[in-house]
Design a protein that fits this description.
Layout: H1 2-6, H2 8-29, H3 31-59, E1 62-66, E2 85-89, H4 91-114, H5 121-140, H6 144-162, H7 169-200, H8 205-211, H9 216-233, H10 242-246, H11 254-276, H12 282-305, H13 310-334, H14 339-378, H15 389-392, H16 394-407, H17 414-429, H18 431-455, H19 472-490, H20 492-508, H21 510-518
Antiparallel strand pairs: 1-2
Length: 521
């Protein structure tokens, strides 16, 4: 067990990577053997992530170095461009690893039956596992260039999954748009990496942070990084690709692809806090993120209200909900240089934003799966052609209500808990921001009331009267995320104290991050 814990950072990436390449070989034995192998790999990944997270919360930051005499070896002070792959796992990395493993497991279980009508299932599962590799790598790596590599793995697999059902024109269009956005974002990030390497002769995040001068070139690099990662996360004004990419994605992958956007959002937070920290123009950068958050909240929800395509409606809420996360973390970033403000409300604002990340990964992922369940049984995403499904699809209706009440911020659900933390902290920073967030929450409730009324209430159309509930694997996939949502709704303080605050403190403690990697701690 000690060896498993020691090597857990690299195993979190190696397990899905090995499974991705082994899946087609196992698929030659039988489809059932392949399904069991993929699920078993992700269950094992979940176990490893739990061990890793517990170790981080009990011991502190974990550094794992490949290419050294010992995996725990740090960078020596007299280093010269060490050719090593360094993983750094702190509270934020543990939080995102938990999200990735849970959502990936639920989405894969959901896909066992839902993907059966499609051809090329071996390729589907390999791509899904590679997407998990990219998400894990982005969160756990301690090197800028490897961040770029893992982002490319995420982008290529995500684009292929979005366009997987090539017989649909909108799927091909969505995959094409995703690869365009990914290519532009990757170019921006690679240019920023080149700027750092040219100035500091280093690629390690901690090494660059310790030498950061915040020169004009560093400011250019920051702008490139923010543009790249916010574009990949789907925040306004780079949100145009999100509905076209996520809507036609195969059942089971929508929730995982959404989690990949959250991984890019968390990478943004890592860059501004751990890489730049208090050396940058905090108020200016903080307000950039706040404005991006407010625009994402408002534009996302207003576009959702006018949709009749149930999945497209929910995808627009992806954009809107990310706005809350950007708002909370942006407020904390804006006052990062003021210890009094951080203690009063800045830390709570960041915690609220991070709590909303994990909440949305679970209940928003759940809502996307319920939309896919309706499509699976009815063959349509048009709300105007639905009705009465609450009578025949009781489990799906129940799961939808859990997700809808949570995302709308109705107490006692976890969405209310994270939104309340954001409301209270942002009000002390700027009351108008809280007013806007409250209005968006009311509009979100109106949007999902419309969906519930259209899809689940009233009489069923004649052609849908014989419709039955989705198969057990799809219910189980939704049940995993529903159970996680209910648990965090019943015990929000436990989640915040044990998972969210450690992630928040990891972002605020730039010196601790540098010391852990550079051997100064």
């Amino acid at each position: 067990m000690d060896a498993l814990i020691l090597h857990s950072p690299i195993l979190a990436v190696a397990i899905p990577l090995f499974a991705a390449f082994a899946t087609p070989l196992v698929g030659r034995v039988s489809p059932r053997a392949r399904d069991v192998f993929v699920i078993a790999s992700l269950v094992f990944l979940q176990f490893v992530v739990i061990l890793l997270a517990r170790d981080v919360y009990e011991v502190g930051i974990r550094v794992y170095t490949l290419g050294a005499l010992s995996p725990t070896q740090t960078i020596p002070e007299d280093y010269m461009v060490p050719v090593r792959l360094i993983f750094e796992v702190d509270g934020l990395g543990a939080l995102m690893a938990i999200i990735t493993s849970v959502v990936a497991l639920s989405g894969t279980i959901y896909s066992i039956v839902s993907i059966k009508p499609e051809t090329g299932q071996d390729r589907f599962y390999s791509l899904l596992l590679l997407l998990v590799v990219g998400m894990m790598g982005i969160q756990l790596t301690g090197d800028m260039f490897n961040l770029f590599v893992f982002l490319e793995i995420l982008s290529i697999s995500g684009a292929a999954l979005a366009a997987f059902r090539t017989r649909f024109v909108d799927a091909v269009e969505g995959g094409f748009k995703y690869i365009i956005v990914s290519s532009v974002g990757a170019l921006f990030l690679l240019l920023a990496i080149g700027i750092f390497y040219g100035q500091y002769n280093a690629l390690n995040i901690a090494a660059i942070a310790s030498a950061m001068q915040y020169s004009v070139l560093d400011q250019v690099a920051l702008a490139l990084i923010l543009a790249a990662l916010l574009m990949k996360s789907g925040a306004v004004p780079s949100h145009w690709w999100v509905p076209d990419t996520y809507t036609p994605a195969p059942a089971g992958t929508s929730s995982v692809m959404y989690a990949s956007s959250l991984a890019c959002l968390a990478a943004t937070f890592r860059m501004v806090f751990s890489l730049y920290g208090v050396q940058m123009s905090l108020a200016a950068v903080g307000w950039i993120i706040i404005i991006a958050g407010v625009l994402s909240m408002f534009i996302g929800v207003t576009m959702a209200l006018r949709q009749t395509d149930i999945k497209r409606l929910m995808v627009y809420h992806v954009i809107s909900q990310e706005g809350y996360m950007l708002l909370g973390v942006g407020v904390g970033l804006a006052v990062l240089g003021n210890p009094q403000a951080i203690a009063a409300y800045g830390r709570e604002a960041i915690a609220g934003g991070l709590f909303h990340v994990i909440n949305n990964a679970f209940y928003k992922g759940l809502l996307l799966l319920t939309a896919e369940a309706l499509l699976f049984r009815l063959g349509t995403r048009d709300l105007n052609k639905m009705g009465g499904m609450g009578r025949t699809m009781k489990w799906t209706c129940g799961f939808f209500l859990i997700g809808a009440l949570a995302i709308s911020g109705i107490p006692p659900f976890n969405g209310f808990a994270s939104k309340l933390m954001i409301y209270e902290s942002t009000y002390q920073f700027n009351p108008m921001l809280t007013v806007i967030a409250l209005i968006v929450s009311i509009m979100t409730l109106a949007s999902f009331t419309k969906v519930f009324q259209s899809a689940f209430t009233g009489p069923a159309l004649p052609e849908y009267r014989e419709v039955r509930e989705v198969p057990m694997s799809m219910k189980l996939g939704m049940g995993v995320l529903a159970a996680a949502t209910v648990f965090m709704s019943l015990f929000p303080s436990v989640v915040v104290d044990s998972i969210i605050y450690p992630a928040t403190d990891a972002l605020l403690d730039q010196s601790g991050y540098i010391a852990a990697v550079m051997g100064g701690g």
